[in-house]
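Replying to the earlier thread about multi-chain prediction with a worked example.

Input:
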Amino acid sequence: MGALEQGFAYGFLVLGVYLTFRVLDFPDLTVDGSLPLGAAVSAVAITAGYDPFLSLLFALLAGFLAGVVTGVLNTKFGILHLLASILTMIALYSVNLRIMGRPNITLLGKSTILEPLTNAGIGMFNAAPLLFGLLSSLALLFLLWLLHTAFGLAMQATGVNPQMITSQGVNTDRVIILTVGLSNGLAAVSGALLCQSQGAADVNMGVGTIVAGLASVIVGETLFGCRSIGRALLAALLGSVLYRLTIALALSLKLGSFSLTPSDLNLLTALLVVAALTLPKLRGKVFSR
Amino acid sequence: MIHVTDLVKTFHRGSINEVLALSGINLRVKKGDFITVIGSNGAGKSTLLNCLSGSYPIDSGHILINEQEVSRWPEYQRASLISRVFQDPLLGTCGPLSIEQNLALANRRGKPHGLRRGVQRSDRELFRKQLAQLNLELENRLKDSVGLLSGGQRQALTLLMATLVKPKILLLDEHTAALDPKTAQQVLELTQKLIEDQDLTTLMVTHNMRQALQLGNRLIMFHGGRIILDVSGSEKAAMSVEDLLEQFYKVRGEEFVSDRMLLV
Ligand SMILES: Nc1ncnc2c1ncn2[C@@H]1O[C@H](COP(=O)(O)OP(=O)(O)OP(=O)(O)O)[C@@H](O)[C@H]1O
Ligand SMILES: [Mg+2]
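Result:
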């Protein structure tokens, strides 16, 4: 799978992570479960003969519901956001297995959303980046529009100043539930796209999703800035692509007989996030001396 | 307009840190009343405002606004009736959003925040006109983020946001206390103007006794979670700071005496 294709496929997830972490200030780990949920739903739907595009919509809805569960656990039951999201994530592992009926499903020989393009004579190597790039750009435009609606402004204010927005008559619980839902809907679409381009859904494909998503957001912010909402959304999407390119590069490096394997990625990504989170502080300390 | 009966509020109920912040408040506020609220630290002034706005749930008692029992309403729902300005200038506005976006949110107070565009083109004219009365040149900075403004500018903007849609009740909690004296005076004058223009029913907490006597048509004094003085009209107009202090020490003195009697 090409880095560009992966970057755009994960772009949905990264946009979702931007919504929860940055806009809502809600660290949401549910995505580790909702990304494979999307893959599972899409794979099962396609196997059952549904249109591959329709399966994306099913994935979106399923992911949305998963996010709603986390949001409700947090706002209505008063469970700390991190813990609420971990609970949903763990529960989703069982749910995903139930949906698939087994740990993985292959889509060999089944039609996917890439079929119309390959049928039109576009090579598989180009079709996926093209289609995923287009779809993730549409998601970006949708979020850009959403964040400038009255609801979107309320969403931004909920993350920054809940007291202020409550005094303006907004039910912040509702905003949190809907936003976490949307974020996980996007993560599930990522899962569905990945499953269709890899040709398989796997119950373990979600491990490390949140850390990779966060790393992509941070890479994007660092390189492209986040002065306006539009800029920040674009940075998130480009961050996703750059992150996947970096990973591909790291995997291709060889130092003598040592080279990195895909199983090292979680460690590398975690280190990258730690570095990105601490470097600004360290720099501040060094300069203040 | 507002009718509060037997309002009781305790913090940390049942623990050794239990605080009886309001011990059975009775208060009737008439439409158009501008009430200044004074009292020592910890007397319960902020707690009363927070109970009215719904920030704190109450233990017992009733809060009626326009004959409607609102004491079980969540805070966001009461926002359709009540506007607030806090002591902290950062609390009333959203820093990363622009001036016009903040005003747009305030312009929809109590209405659904749906999927229509946040800032409508037609809103801008209104916003400019409203901002112009602040005399802070903000009317040409609609797109600047509020985080760029000074504390005084933010507090003036918060006041404007609180009155953009006329509230049934305006709650001000030491809203000039965090500002330098000159800015505080400007914000106070703006407060007076906005209240007079719209004939707003207002409760204003202040630590400045002179201010409390100068402004409004009624004054209430809190002590130990109770209202110990309630004067209005000509009676209030005739009062001096010394009279207020005298009243205050009289009540406190009686308490000292009763404490002593208990100890003996
Ligand atoms: N959130 C809270 N949790 C616990 N105790 C509180 C809380 N808020 C207020 N209190 C207590 O309730 C009592 C009344 O406090 P309140 O803030 O209403 O006083 P105040 O009259 O506004 O005083 P000040 O003039 O200092 O602002 C105090 O003893 C205070 O410690
Ligand atoms: Mg107070």
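The longest helix of chain B spans residues 241-263.

Feel free to reuse this layout for your own posts.
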